[in-house]
Amino acid sequence: MDKNQVQPPKANILVVDDTPDNLRLLSAMLTQMGYEIRRVINGQTALKTAQAAPPDLILLDVMMPDMNGYEVCQHLKADDKTRNIPVIFISALDEVLDKVKAFAVGGVDYITKPFSEEEVFARVENNLIIQRLQRQLIEQNARLQQEISDRQAALRDREKAELALRLSQFYLDRSKDAIFFINADAQIVYVNEATCHSLRYSREQLLSMNIQDIDPNFGLATWQSKLSEFRQRDSYEIDTIHITQDGQRINVKVTVNYIQFKGQDYFCSNARYLINR
After folding, report:
1. Where do the domains of the chain lie?
2. Which residues 6+ apart lie within 8 Å of 92 measured at CB?
3. Among candidates 218, 220, 219, 221, which has minimal Cα distance to 256?
4. Buried/exposed 117-138: b ≥16 CB within 10 Å, e otherwise
5. Can you give the pLDDT at residue 116?
């Protein structure tokens, strides 16, 4: 890494104190530790600054004129834009009740003056780590919720598709016409009950066959040559012959419709057998 390359600040910290000497001291310490520092001398300015560009953390003096640190923190926690900013109080007040009040209004930590650089650094760093972990947890939970929502939507879509398939099969099986689907490789991929009844094959038998097994006029070469015609027309009629399992030849008028599903070509054949039943 280039030694002259400027390192980005570890975090942006807002320091609020009405005493200029304290501001300069804290700013110097934290800047030396690699943080970007903004300084304000009263509560009202602190609120405006935090709302305009929320910092990663706020170091907040308790004893200030007009609006003390407790009141500033209450305003921060009441605003959606600033409520999640961790606030560390810094004060000369060392009574237990003072610290209890600081935590009660939403502070995450309390540093008593006079303070050491090591203590300030440790408390700032620890609270920034906690904040980063909380953000990561929130983001992970949001991603998890989105994944759950996506999976639930996919499941609903699959259930709808399965229902639509079952309904279509139900209505196709109730048709008196023989209906079967063929893929581009001439394999039979679906047959209804009327097809089974007319050709005297079981559904399982037909689904293991090619179109040439039941139609002598459609060898694989002939089928391949007809595919472009099937694709170009919404409906294509053919007069041909189908052979039943027991060898009977049946004259049939077949209407072929081209369907594309998930990038694959299928051909729906509606066959009307010209026989007395």
Report:
1. 12-139, 167-273
2. 63, 112, 113
3. 218
4. eeebeebbeebbeebeeeeeee
5. 87
Whether pTM exceeds 0.90: no
Q: What percent of the chain has pLDDT over 70?
A: 94
The mean per-residue pLDDT over the stretch 135-145 comes to: 91
What is the spatial distance between Cα 244 and Cα 200, in angstroms, rounded to a whole number? 6
- The answer to whether 194 and 176 are in contact (CB under 8 A) is yes
Q: What CA–CA distance (Å, rounded) separates 262 from 69?
A: 64
Given the DSSP bridges, would you call strands 264-273 and 178-183 parallel, antiparallel or unpaired?
antiparallel
Alpha carbons within 13 A on the beta-carbon side of 207? 8
Q: Is the N-terminal amide bond of 114 cis, ω within 30° of 0?
A: yes
Q: Say if domain 167-273 classifies as CATH 3.30.450.20.
A: yes
Q: How far, in Å, CA of 11 to CA of 58, rounded?
A: 11
Place of tokens 């709302």: 51
Q: CATH number for the 12-139 domain, one of 3.40.50.280, 3.40.50.2300, 3.40.50.10800, 3.40.50.1820? A: 3.40.50.2300
